[in-house]
Each structure stands twice: as structure tokens, then as C-alpha cells.
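Q: For a teaching handout, I want to show students what a protein-ligand complex looks like in C-alpha cell form. Below are the inputs, and the small molecule is adenosine-5'-triphosphate. Please produce the holo structure.
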Amino acid sequence: MAEMTTTKRFSIGYGLLMKKQKSFIQDSLVNLAKERGIDLIKIDTDKPLVDQGPFDCVLHKLYGEEWRKQLREYLVYNPNAIVVDFPDAIERLHNRISMLDVVSEIEEVKSDEMASFGIPKQIVIYEPEKLKEAKTWGEGLKFPVIAKPLVADGSAKSHKMLLIFSSEGFDKLKPPTVLQEFVNHGGVIFKVYVVGKYVKCVKRKSLPDIAEEKLESLHGSLSFSQVSNLTSHDRNDDKYYKRMDLEDAEMPPMSLITNIARGLRKAMKLHLFNFDVIRDTKVGNRYLVIDINYFPGYAKMPGYESVLTDFFWDVLNKKEARSFNSDKELMKLVGNNGAGSDNESSA
Ligand SMILES: Nc1ncnc2c1ncn2[C@@H]1O[C@H](COP(=O)(O)OP(=O)(O)OP(=O)(O)O)[C@@H](O)[C@H]1O
Ligand SMILES: O=P(O)(O)O[C@H]1[C@H](OP(=O)(O)O)[C@@H](OP(=O)(O)O)[C@@H](O)[C@@H](O)[C@@H]1OP(=O)(O)O
Ligand SMILES: [Mg+2]
Ligand SMILES: [Mg+2]
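A: Here is the structure, written as C-alpha cells, with adenosine-5'-triphosphate included.
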């Protein structure tokens, strides 16, 4: 009798908002994954998750207590399923203070590049009225500053920023707000996409530098939103940018970028995120992390299909993140806030 070769197929259930589904779940990704034995299946969020699947892995960018409950229940009945990523771990990115706090937990690895990294000075404001009275505000924070909503939950509101040049600009603040020092960075931002152990750094246009001489004539505030995410059409109207060539901008040292990426991944216990980095023009070799996003727009990454499919394969074959669903992690998801262990193999 001829021997039958049965290769095990895997299934990944995805729970994503419509906008994300449209950009991320492209035929090219679905087909490539299928060829590698992985079926991507949409989760119907109107039905209980436990009644669907079974999935070997649940991939999601959904929030809220109801969804957490669904995941919890799913894991009780499917203890071997893998959740990418745990809601408790993602949560830290929903607050622009806890989001960047993690950067200080990364060990600085000495390299030949002599580059350093950190975050811009920032404070959180709950009562803007007090800012005006205060003789000194923000302990050494200098104008201009960027006001960012404290909450970063993916809503349009959470992306609304205010560039503030003088104290008159405080009138428009909608607390709670983070005031972050604006750092001149040559109008270029580096977006670093992380997919498990994979790291990709790309350049994007950013806000132009503000000359110190010019600052004296600038008052009040200027609002903007998702500058580095604008389409080329939006960019052409030169609302935010000077003419500048992105191609000419020097990339940061890759050793530094991969070190930050690996450090963030371990400290946050997240596998899918990107972070924005700028180079402080004044210092030259100092890099500042200004934003971290969970499950960003990967489809904009060249060859995202194979990068993501490789990642799925590693996760499903337990080559990635052995700590997934360890007892401690499971306890955490179920709501017992014990610290999780990190026994993931090193990259
Ligand atoms: N400290 C800073 N100094 C200079 N420019 C900054 C600073 N912080 C933010 N920017 C500029 O403002 C833009 C938006 O800021 P940020 O990335 O924090 O917002 P976001 O809404 O979370 O963005 P994303 O769409 O990446 O989630 C950045 O891409 C960058 O161009
Ligand atoms: O698709 P989503 O709604 O998740 O939008 C994300 C967007 O991806 P998109 O390109 O698919 O719009 C991301 O763009 P890049 O950093 O990769 O350029 C980034 O702006 C995230 O902050 C957004 O996540 P949010 O913070 O709003 O949840
Ligand atoms: Mg950003
Ligand atoms: Mg962001």
C-alpha cells in the first residue's frame, strides 16, 4: 500500500478591525501562508470565540474587557493555542508614558558606533490651567514642545498632536496630555518594524527642524496628525515639509537599531510592533525613541508576506517565543498580575 504523506496544517484565527483587515490580510499573504501549510481564518467577533476554530494561534489587535474575556475563555478550552500578543503586554503601549518608560529598561550594548539612545524629555499634564501660572514649568522642558494625548488607543483622537511654541499654545490642550520636548532631527524619522526576531528600518518624512532664531517669532500652537503616515499626495502640498531628499538621509547604525528592537521585544514581551526613532541634530549620534505602536502597518514593509509567514511558521512550530502560554503568562492573562518569566531563546 502506498504511504500517505500527511503534512500537518495549521490555522491562525485573526481578530482585526476592518481597516486593519483591509491593509494586512491581502491575497498575497493568505496565499503564501497557505503554501506553507498555514490557513488564515477570520474571527467573527459577533460570535463567541470558543465556538470558532479551533485555531493553533489567535492573532489580534482588538481591545476591551469583553475581548479579553473571550481570549481567556478560549485558552481555558484550548490551552495549547498561542495568543499573539497578550493583552496585558499590549496595554503598556496605550499610555504614552508607560510606552516610553520601557526604553530605560534596555541594556546599552557597547558597539564601535559610539551612538547612544534614549527618549525626549517629557511630562504629563492633567490640569493645563496650572501651567500658565507656573513660573517654571516642566522642570527644564523648553519650547517648542509637542502635546500628545496620553492615551494611545488607536483612535483618531489619540493621534491628534499639537506643536506648541509658547505658553499661549497651552489654551488648546485637552488633558490628559503628554508634553514632549520637540527635538530637531533633520525632517527624517526612522520607523523600525519588528516581527519576532526580524527587524526592518525604513525612512519616512517627518516635521522639519525649527531654527532657534525663528522660535522668537513663533507663538501659540499648530495642530497636526500622523505626519509620517501621510500619502505622497498629502505630502506634495508642502504643508509640513520643506523640499528635502529622503534618499540623502543617513541611516542609523543597524547594530544600535537591532539592539533597541531586541531589548524592547524582551522587555515588553511583544512580537509585533514598530517604533519611531529620530536622530538629535544637535548631538549627531544620539537617537531618541518617540513612539511605539502595536501591530503597525506591516503591508507597507517591502516583502511583508514572507516576513510574516516566516514568523507564523516559527510561532506555530514553537521556534519563536517558547514562553508563550507558560503557566505564569496564562495566569497573567487570566488577571493574576504576577510577573512573567522570560525564557525565550535569544536572537
Ligand atoms: N519629540 C519629538 N520631536 C520632534 N518631532 C516629533 C517628536 N515627537 C513626535 N514628532 C513628530 O510627530 C509625529 C507624530 O508623533 P508620534 O509618532 O508620537 O504620533 P503617533 O500618532 O503615535 O504616530 P503613529 O502614526 O506612528 O502611531 C512623528 O512621526 C514625528 O514626525
Ligand atoms: O492600521 P491601524 O489602524 O492599526 O493603524 C496603524 C498604522 O498602520 P496602517 O498603515 O495600517 O494604518 C501605523 O502606521 P505605520 O507606523 O506602520 O506607518 C501606525 O500609524 C499605527 O500607530 C496605527 O495604529 P493605531 O495606533 O492607530 O492603532
Ligand atoms: Mg509615530
Ligand atoms: Mg503611535
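A: Two things your students might notice: The first strand starts at residue 10 and ends at 15. Residues 254-268 form the longest helix (15 residues).
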